[in-house]
Amino acid sequence: MGYHVVDPEDVEPTPDRPSEHRSISDYCDLEKMALNVYRVEPGEPLPLAYHVHAEQEEAFVVLAGTLHVETPEGEKVVPEGNIFVAEPESPHRAFVPEDAEETVRAVAIGAPPVDDVRPYEPDDE
């Protein structure tokens, strides 16, 4: 058995990311899901690029602020307390607009924790 009580502030931020990213799954050596905490300032994206997963399901739980997600179907607005879910093969790019008035805090959960991400180019459709 294994249990963890984690203060995200105890987890070192991942270097070279466009927003503050802390990998709880790495910190706890989780093997069956990716669990990440983000603090995103206005004008910053969460992921490194507009992307799509072949197999992974991904969910963003918005703890504070309003998250925006670009999709081929248009922009989705995810208010505090709501969850955005992307199924496999569903391109998305989560971000906070430059004109936003507040920092967004979100938790991202992905399963299985496979490295199946690939860049998505809207012009490719």
From TrEMBL:
One Pfam match: Cupin_2
Q: Which domain of life is it from?
A: Archaea
Domain Cupin type-2: from-to ranges: 37-100
Q: Where is the composition biased (Basic and acidic residues)?
A: 14-23
**Region of interest: Disordered:** 1-23
What's the protein called, per UniProt? Cupin domain-containing protein
